[in-house]
């Protein structure tokens, strides 16, 4: 049985910490595609932590992980983009709220994958719109630079999400479905 997204216990805190650390530590790995923008495989972790543990855990893991990465790589936090990572993971975690979606027990259907795809793509572009507007209006960044960054990041994040994130969630649930019929004989 899935736990409530609002039930906090040691496992929840540890999961957020592990997700944040994994995302923060791996976000520096990427292929440059535009000014200050990279294709980052770590985006798949946002889908994994969001879908498997819910939107709250996903949001906090993405936000904290991005903050960690910013400190490690530049020493300065870009708050619009850090919040954007959290927003992306939260949207990807909306599939967790489906009553019959439970990847820990192997319960995943094609309709869940479609929901994850829709929520994830909407989340990617909503978070990038937020991050871009934040940079323009709060940070004073030039509009043309932000447009290039957000469009490039949107395409790159979508590709990583579809190619790595969704299959990882599906494979996790399928693995658990295959293991649910095991019994222990005494």
Any overview of this molecule?
The protein is built from 6 helices and 2 strands. Helix 2 (43-53) crosses helix 4 (79-92). Helices cover 68% and strands 4% of the residues. The protein has a single domain (10-178), classed as Arp2/3 complex 21 kDa subunit ARPC3 (Orthogonal Bundle), CATH 1.10.1760. Strands 1-2 form a two-stranded antiparallel sheet. It is mainly alpha-helical. 41% of the residues are buried. A hairpin with a 2-residue loop joins strand 1 and strand 2 (37-39). The longest helix is centred in the C-terminal third of the chain and has 37 residues, at 143-179. The mean pLDDT is 93.
Classify the helix fraction into a percent range.
55-70%
Give the CA-CA distance, first to last residue. 25 Å
Low-confidence segments, given as residue ranges, are none
The total of helices stands at 6
**CATH topology type:** Arp2/3 complex 21 kDa subunit ARPC3
**Class computed from helices, strands and strand pairing:** mainly alpha
List the helices and strands and how they pair.
Elements: H1 10-26, E1 31-34, E2 37-39, H2 43-53, H3 55-73, H4 79-92, H5 110-137, H6 143-179
Antiparallel strand pairs: 1-2
Briefly say what this structure is.
InterPro entries: ECF_substrate-spec-like. By secondary structure, the protein is mainly alpha-helical. The chain has 6 helices and 2 strands.
């Amino acid at each position: 049985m899935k736990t409530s997204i609002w039930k906090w216990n040691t496992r929840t805190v540890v999961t957020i910490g592990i997700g944040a650390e994994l995302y923060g530590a791996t976000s520096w790995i990427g292929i440059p595609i535009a000014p200050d923008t990279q294709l980052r495989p770590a985006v798949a972790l946002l889908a994994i932590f969001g879908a498997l543990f819910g939107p709250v855990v996903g949001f906090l893991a993405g936000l904290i992980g991005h903050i960690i990465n910013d400190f490690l790589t530049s020493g300065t936090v870009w708050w619009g983009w850090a919040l954007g990572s959290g927003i992306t993971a939260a949207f990807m975690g909306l599939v967790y709220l489906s009553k019959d979606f439970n990847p820990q027990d192997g319960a995943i259907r094609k309709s869940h994958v479609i929901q994850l795809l829709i929520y994830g793509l909407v989340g990617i572009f909503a978070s990038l719109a937020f991050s871009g507007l934040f940079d323009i209006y709060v940070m004073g960044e030039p509009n043309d630079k932000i447009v290039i960054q957000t469009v490039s990041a949107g395409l790159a994040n979508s590709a990583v999400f579809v190619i790595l994130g969704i299959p990882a969630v599906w494979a996790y649930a399928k693995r658990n479905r295959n293991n649910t019929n095991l019994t222990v004989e005494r």
